[in-house]
Amino acid sequence: MPKSVYYVTTPIYYVNDIPHIGNAYTTIVADVVARYHRLKGEKTFFLTGTDENATKVANAAAEAGVPTRQYVDKLAGDFQKVWASLAIEYDDFIRTTEDRHVRVVEAIFKRLLDQGDIFKGHYEGWYCIPCETFFSESELVDGKCPECGRAVEWVQEENYYFRLSAYANRLLAHIEAHPEFLQPEFRKNEVVNFIKQGLRDVSITRTNRGWGIPVPGDPSKVIYVWFDALINYISAVGYLYDEERFNSIWPADLQLMGKDIFVRFHCTFWPAMLMALGLDLPKVLFGHGWWSIDGEKISKSKGNAISPAKLAENLAAESGAKRDVCLDAVRYFMCREVTFGSDGDFSMASFRNRFNSDLANDLGNLLNRTLSMLSKYFGSKIPDSKGHSGMLRDIIVETATFAEAACDKLEFSRALESIWQMIAAGNKFVNDREPWTLAKQGRMDELAGVLYSALEVVRAAAIMISPFMPATSCEIARQLGVLNEFGSLKWTNVTDSKPFEPGIVISGPEPIFPRLGSTISAQHTTRENAREKKGAIEQMTERISYDYFSKMDLRIAEVKSAERVEGAEKLLKLMVNLGDEERQIVAGIAQWYEPECLVGRKIVMLTNLQPAKIRGVDSDGMLLAADVEGRAVVLFADEQVPAGAKVK
């Protein structure tokens, strides 16, 4: 049976702690990928699970004072509960203590031993128990593990080895022949250099201390946890026991993992094992970056780990939004905030800003205002547009094409950015067409067309964001009156020419994303509103002296070049001409402006601002932009104004 299934995997997780925002990232992204391919109509298989045979797991159980099996059973169950709470829809959850896995590991060990890819030898070297990894003397950093920085122990054992050194040239040849194999591109060189430095044969057994998979025929040894763990990707899909199923699923289309286990294990050890077995290699191995919290590494000792589920619960309590919608906000933030593959930093300020700006102001605003006018002018029914709709069809088609291509390339932040540009275009369209004016003038057919076109954008957005925000997309569909059919829609339905039947009764508007900081108890509403108005008036009437204003050196600058700041989805790096000099500035406008559309334009720039370094990039000045409902609108100058002209 030929391969017919899109297969995506996460690494299997050590059962020594509950997932936090850092190690849940891989599984959230894998879920997005699986949902996306299902949305495209593809049969999909999504695998995750737990790695339970590690020495450190047995040590943790001993410290907890419980039998190891009881310990791993509980934590494996905890992992499954966490994934359920995060709306993760995996197809299989494999545990390395399961018989179906153990039998395959034993059979593979026997086969590779018989064919000479495994041999017996004596091992002396450094071993890191927390990382379950062997290191040479030259790899240690200040005598400690180069991965986790903790102490290593000197191990002297008679062990079995996997002949990894024999596969160096084949690995390099495969990488050369399949440029898409290792992603992102900037990690590929690290793998190639690692292989070219010389691959050493790997010790794949340890002394049996009562936990792990015993070596067939030699129960004094257990199989090394990494050799055992990597096999889960094929043991879960029928290797050696269900040939038809295995052939329909393998090879994996995408295997996701953090950058710490990318080079040594997944890009060298794993493909060499597959080569030894005569199996096809995965199509793509992707090593993503790490998340930090407010610039600091996530650490149990620091106590700064954040639970995604708890974050959603806190957001729901503060905003009044539904918990599953708040969970979507977490998923959205993690996929939108950074380029997938790069490191990311989580801060509550950034998270709250995304919620208010992107979700409440942009998506929520377009949905709420359109449904409100539909209720007011057409009795909450989809009107017959009579040929006046489809005015935003071109941008919907363009967005669907771009977002699909971006998702295919795992460029999730770019995909979401394009969808939000479409949403912004929908909001601008409503503003420009002034449906309230059309209603006053009695131009009801045109009004129907404007609202119908705006709803087309909302529906298209709901379909395209459904892999990222499944609960939100369903809530939008419910309010649009199309929930019954929504579950059967595919990506191709984004561009349907007539998505709504006239007469459909809409539900709402019911704000999906109540803006943070705006929830006020009913008995205080009038009083607090009065205070806000008074404060706003006082703020508007506050004056500054001319001397204060004159200290600001505002000048016209011409943008000579513009590019994105790597790893910072919000930032653009601009080189500008001030007439007698050129400077580099960093601007947080990448969500609203493509770099190429800025080149040659004239902007207003504050030139005597203290220089700063933003995300490691020097910035000497600041462009001026208006804040329009949370969106940055750059102030452009007339093209005839010369660069360097002073703004007074």
> What is the CATH top level name of the largest domain?
Alpha Beta
Measured between the Cα atoms of the first and last residue, the distance is: 74 Å
Instruction: Look at the structure and name the CATH superfamily of the largest domain.
Output: HUPs
| CATH architectural name of the largest domain | 3-Layer(aba) Sandwich
- Supply Rg: 29 Å
Number of domains: 3
Main sheet overview: 7 strands, parallel
Q: How many helices does DSSP assign?
A: 21
Low-confidence stretches: 518-542
| Outline | globular
Beta content:
15-25%
- Could you say which structural class the secondary elements and strand pairing correspond to? alpha/beta
- Estimate the mean pLDDT confidence: 88
How would you classify the quaternary structure? single chain
User: What is the helical fraction, as a range of percent?
Assistant: 40-55%
User: Within the CATH hierarchy, at the fold level, what is the topology of the largest domain?
Assistant: Rossmann fold
Number of DSSP-assigned strands: 27
Helices and strands, with pairings:
Blueprint: E1 6-9, E2 13-14, H1 25-39, E3 44-51, H2 55-64, H3 68-85, E4 92-95, H4 99-114, E5 118-128, E6 133-135, E7 153-162, H5 168-177, E8 182-183, H6 185-196, E9 202-203, E10 205-207, E11 214-215, E12 218-223, H7 225-230, H8 232-235, H9 243-249, E13 254-258, H10 262-277, E14 285-288, E15 291-293, E16 296-297, H11 308-319, H12 323-336, E17 344-346, H13 348-378, H14 393-408, H15 412-433, H16 435-440, H17 444-465, H18 470-480, H19 483-486, H20 525-541, H21 546-550, E18 554-565, E19 568-577, E20 582-587, E21 602-606, E22 612-614, E23 617-619, E24 622-623, E25 625-628, E26 631-634, E27 646-647
